[in-house]
């Protein structure tokens, strides 16, 4: 993943660190005996995961002769992040934090601040002969060590390295091919062809029930939807209301620019707004959650969703008797005035500067060594399999003759066993243990060759993503190369959150007609709003940081 790392998402790289979160940093926390290690971690209680009673926890306790005790949080990002900050501020924090990057993790700026205050222990001297798997991983993927190294040159924590090919191109469009066949249509290749297909979905009764119940195009949150629709006009990464990445920024002529200030961005929004005005986009596309979309995808009234903009087609389950699970196929990037760009993140789900694992000053030297050995074990091949997936023979098995790896050029190495929902979940730590999933590990997993079966789902995603590979944009801004720390990082975090969150809101308002994208007055007001929120300073900070990195 070394070549992909340079495009990896740096979620949280510029997040502010609340001063109140570390109010207790100057006091020495109480500790526990060397054979008792306390860990703060997210726990999927909704799926009956219990880290204290977990099979992998018990395996680690026996293997390393320790008693692991957990302070847990939920898989809800906002709640998990808040509880972590409260934990730190209390002064009674644990020996270590083990997090999941797409839920919550320590940002680069947090690591430097907490390390400088003595709350976090540096890992540099703990990585060596006693951690052969970490050392080997750093050598195999130099980008992994680069990712682990903070802006001050020290390693204050371990990040997650997850080489997820299908995650690298999140803004996909999944369209019902049966509907296309019924109406005698081909997959669209341009924005106007997409409009024609969506109009046919709306007006020509492709599900054949005689009712005008078809939803031509749906989504959740609008991020993937706008990214897919606007890339033919102007490069548009997925925008998120959290503002954790500078999704509004691009590069034009070697200069950092704010994409929403450009006429091309206005043209893209205008196109999306016209689709919405014609009833071709689900009215709930910007507001509904996943459960609402799943309810539509699995409607008991029949197939009603013509297409959905998502990373993968999770909105349709495999147990519908009409076989709708197999009907949705990915549509390649559309070609427009800006070409056929696709949003590329390099596997943002798990390649973010910062750390998911840190050791605090509550941990004695003996505990520090033990914790590093535990992480090192989770990076080993068998440790990874047991930590992420569970018990051999129950949750995963070795390959058999005839098994085929996801990447058919690789030798198959393991096969995950599909179990009933919830069963076997408490046998593993899941993504907490996913420290080093390189391309070879992930793609050597045995996957069924029939992509229309649940067992072939990962291959379905792999093959679909190949349609988007190679469509990276020349306008992509490599913000992960722009290191911003100290007071400037705190300033940037506030501006970034305000600007990014506002653009998400304003884009949805333009598309839905709350704001009129065709009105010069509304457009001018939008530009003034950006200025008032500090957009010019936002661009300046990133430009200066990027220039300094060259």
From TrEMBL:
What is the protein name stated in its UniProt record? Answer: ABC transporter substrate-binding protein
Q: Which UniProt keywords apply?
A: Signal
Signal sequence bounds:
1-23
What InterPro entries has UniProt attached to this entry?
Bact_solute-bd_prot1
Q: Which organism is it from?
A: Glycomyces algeriensis
